[in-house]
Every structure is written in C-alpha cells, then in structure tokens.
C-alpha cells in the first residue's frame, strides 16, 4: 500500500477579486495530522477543495499520493432512503461500512430511519461512517465537529487519532479545537490586500 503524502506549494486562492490566501505551503506524510483554523471567509473550505482537486488554485500546485476521502458540508446521502440503504448505495461504489463502525458511531439502531429524519449530529455521524467505509489513507475533513455533542466530538477525535496512528494522514479544517496527539496547526489569516506591484 502506497504511503500517503499531501504536499502544497505556494498556493493562492481567489474568490472574485478577493484574495483569500497566498504563499500557503504544507507537507504532510502518513502518521501526521494538521488542524486548519481561521475566521469565516479566510478560505478553509476552499483549501480543502483545492487539496481534493475539486477547485483549481489561483497559483501554486498540489501533489498527492494515496487514496483520499472528503468529508464536507454536503453529506451526499439520499434523504428519502433509510440510512442503511443510503449507506449501502455508497458501499457499492467506494467501500462498505463495517458493522463495528456503525456501532462505534451510534448508528446501528438507526439503519431503518429515513435520512431526512436524522438529527444534525446523526447526519454528521452518517457522513463519518461513509468516510470510514472508503478506507482512504488521506482524510480531508471540513468542519467535522459541527452539530456534535461532547461525546461525539471525543469519538471523532479518537477516529482521527486512530487513523493517524495507523499511518493515515488527516487535514482537519475546524473553528472548534480538536484534541489529536501531534497535530500541527495552520492558521489562515484574515484577508489582506495584495501588495502593490
């Protein structure tokens, strides 16, 4: 299995005429995690999308080795299906969620409940289940703690810590503190105009 690696060199991101960030570089390997922080609108979600190759950077480049899984604000589970069937759909495409993971996430008793009736925290845990099913070596997590209570936050922290301890790589963008051993920090500063040429 290929060792995961995520490298960004001199990234810049624009939204319209506004420069969100520039000269951003990082180099992460398996066994490492990074917590990306910053105010609303500084580009945390845009950075995640650039690293996932869903958004083209204004400048710079990204190199990636290893399979990738993205958890963002779009859960991508059919609202009309029971949770079990909605997860099974994705299981056929990118990896089946194990029963022990469903139990660990507190979802085992919710598989017959239509996704539209799940609470915010239950939906977030369902998205985490899909993430685990992918068995990806690189995790890109955008606000994974939103809508979770204290116990669920601790569970997410354990999931990330276990993933990293197993040689995985995690980049977590979050307003909230996240307690994961040996997690590096990357702060995106508030917008500053480009220097004059």
| Strand percentage | 25-35%
Shape: globular
Number of strands: 8
Q: SSE order, as H and E?
A: EEEHEEHHHEHEE
Give the low-pLDDT segments.
none
Main sheet: which strands, in order across?
Answer: 5-6-7-3-8
**What structural class is derived from the secondary structure elements?**
alpha/beta
Oligomer description: single chain
Helicity, as a percent range = 25-40%
Please give the radius of gyration in angstroms: 17 Å
**What is the CA-CA span between the terminal residues?**
46 Å
Total DSSP helices: 5
Nearest-integer average pLDDT: 90
Characterize the largest beta sheet: strand count, sense, and whether it forms a barrel: 5 strands, parallel
């Amino acid at each position: 299995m290929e060792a995961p690696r995520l490298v960004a060199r001199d990234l810049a991101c624009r939204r319209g005429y506004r420069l969100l960030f520039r000269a951003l570089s990082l180099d992460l390997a398996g066994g490492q995690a990074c917590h990306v922080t910053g105010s609303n609108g500084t580009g945390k979600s845009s950075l995640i999308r650039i690293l996932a190759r869903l958004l083209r950077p204004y400048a710079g480049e990204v190199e990636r080795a290893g399979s990738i899984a993205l958890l963002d604000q779009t859960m991508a589970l059919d609202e009309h299906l029971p949770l079990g069937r909605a997860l099974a759909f994705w299981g056929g495409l990118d990896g089946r969620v194990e029963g022990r993971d469903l139990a660990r996430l507190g979802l085992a008793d919710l598989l017959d409940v239509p996704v539209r009736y799940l609470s915010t925290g239950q939906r977030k845990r369902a998205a985490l289940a899909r993430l685990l099913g992918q068995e990806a070596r690189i995790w890109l997590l955008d606000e994974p703690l939103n809508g979770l209570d204290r116990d669920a936050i601790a569970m997410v922290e354990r999931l990330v810590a276990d993933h990293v301890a197993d040689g995985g790589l995690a980049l977590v963008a979050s307003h909230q503190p996240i307690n994961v051993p040996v997690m590096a920090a990357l702060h995106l500063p508030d917008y500053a105009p480009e220097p004059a040429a």
